[in-house]
Design brief:
alpha/beta, 5-stranded parallel beta sheet, 10 helices, 5 strands
Amino acid sequence: MDDLERYAAQHLDKNAFDYYSTGAGDDVTTARKIDKLLKAYQGMAHPDGELATVRAVNSMDTAMGLSIYSTNSLEDVALESPNTIKFMQMQFYKDRQFMESLLKRAEKAGYKAVLLTLDIPTYGRHIGRANFFLPEHLEFANFLSWKKKEGLRNNEEMNDHITSLNDGSVDWETFDWLRSITSLPFVVKGILTAEDARLAVQHGAQGIWCQITEGGS
């Protein structure tokens, strides 16, 4: 990991390197080298973005979890490597119609499960990410319907709009609704207590993703 970090420091611009190399909080886990993995916005690290990642994943004969904040659309990633097992990460938005559309897109593209992030409404406070921006030559590729619908002109406006629609008011009934509109199984991440782990299983979650991380999306 140290070799990769040194290489990244030499080849990425400051905006991208600060995003990838810092955590969301006090860098406790990043200092221990637990969370130094690329997640969202992979187009900042490689011209092919998530397409390069799924090719690498396929070469290792393993599975890929695609962030909703990918710079290539979920459909393009699926087409790039149709035989790779892929999971779609998403979270709750106030725009329920968009969520339903996203699930239908993932089903149609052949994704095998949903990685549902439950703790995203709490945002990081790391100073290294305070001025982060997605460069204009890249796109919030899975949100282009919002860009067209709302007449958003650039990535700063897109980011503000997406942030405003994150929904921190959900409960387990909301999860029940989400499960009812798709045949895909759900793996939940962001579970913080044993009680919520039990409730997740009771409400039909088919997996719990445990991670020690400050990075997030």
